[in-house]
Specification:
Elements lengths: L6 E6 L5 H13 L3 E6 L7 E4 L6 H22 L17
Parallel strand pairs: 1-2, 2-3
Length: 95
């Protein structure tokens, strides 16, 4: 879903997934989208690297979930969307 001008935020905290993430980042950059990578350093042009200190796995999950939610919230406000009323969501899960 990345397209030219999109902003993609990735929390890359686990070296075990580095190969998969590198492939994903190359595909996103090829679409001319902007990548902001939190965590490990990445040697790809046009990627914004945000280095972070080491945390325990438990703390990392809590901190980055909150961070990503705040980023999404502020981007939706910037786009004129109401984050309290997302479109096309069902109120109930049906099977």
């Amino acid at each position: 879903t990345a397209k030219q001008g999109s902003w993609i935020f990735i929390s890359s905290l686990n070296e075990e997934n580095a190969d998969l993430e590198n492939g994903l980042i190359r595909e996103i950059v090829a679409q001319k989208a902007h990548v902001v990578l939190f965590g490990r350093h990445h040697d790809v042009p046009d990627v914004v690297n945000v280095n972070i200190p080491e945390f325990s796995d438990e703390l990392r999950g809590s901190l980055f979930t909150t961070l990503m939610q705040l980023i999404a919230y502020h981007f939706s406000l910037k786009l004129g969307l109401n984050p309290d009323k997302p479109g096309e969501l069902n109120r109930y899960i049906t099977y």
